[in-house]
Design a protein that fits this description.
By secondary structure, the protein is mainly alpha-helical. Helices cover 53% and strands 4% of the residues. It has a 3-stranded antiparallel beta sheet with strand order 1-3-2. Residues 10-78 form the HTH merR-type domain.
Length: 180
């Protein structure tokens, strides 16, 4: 017997409908505050129809469009849930309308007026800081690498580069695992 379109769904039903493992849905709940299934006694999750639609949009952006989790979080922050729901449903007219409304509402900020940290969610592969020649040891001896002798700390820029490289590698691993 089929459920009504307005009925709540269990995690196993949502996982089966969207071809996702249940643990991925639980993980996404930790990364996307917008996914809030109702929890009953014993921690059993029940997803509302709007939760399922949002998850469908998130899945599309991550798996089909190749966005990172940070990229999808940024899309949600900038455009709202309706944007991803429309994308998940393939409603390109609604996507275009939301994008146009956002552009009309947006006032361009001068670089000095932009909030600090606005650059935090850049696409994978575009470094936020330029690598210093010292980090890669170009033209230096082995003891003159990214960490100076007697010091146990990397510079802030080099730490950022390493963190970004780690994030890129983890994202590559996720994409490779998805293909296998």
């Amino acid at each position: 017997m089929d459920k009504s379109p307005d009925a709540f769904r269990t995690i196993s039903e949502v996982a089966e409908d969207l071809d996702l493992p249940q643990h991925v849905l639980r993980f996404w709940e930790t990364r996307f505050n917008q996914i809030k299934p109702m929890k009953r006694g014993g921690g059993r999750r029940y997803y509302r129809p709007q939760d399922v639609e949002l998850i469908k949009g998130i899945r599309h952006m991550l798996y089909d469009q190749g966005y990172t989790i940070k990229g999808v979080q940024k899309l949600l922050r900038e455009n709202g849930n309706h944007f991803l729901v429309a994308i998940g449903n393939g409603d390109m007219a609604a996507v275009e309308a939301i994008a146009q409304r956002r552009q009309a509402d947006q006032v361009p900020l001068t670089p000095a007026a932009q909030p600090r940290g606005a650059d935090d969610e850049m696409l994978v592969g575009q470094p936020k800081v330029k690598p210093s020649r010292r980090f890669f040891g170009i033209g230096k001896s082995d003891d003159e690498g990214p960490v100076q002798p007697g010091s146990s700390k990397l510079s802030r820029d080099n730490r950022a580069l390493l963190q970004e490289a780690l994030f890129d590698l983890l994202e590559c691993k996720r994409l490779l695992d998805q293909v296998r």
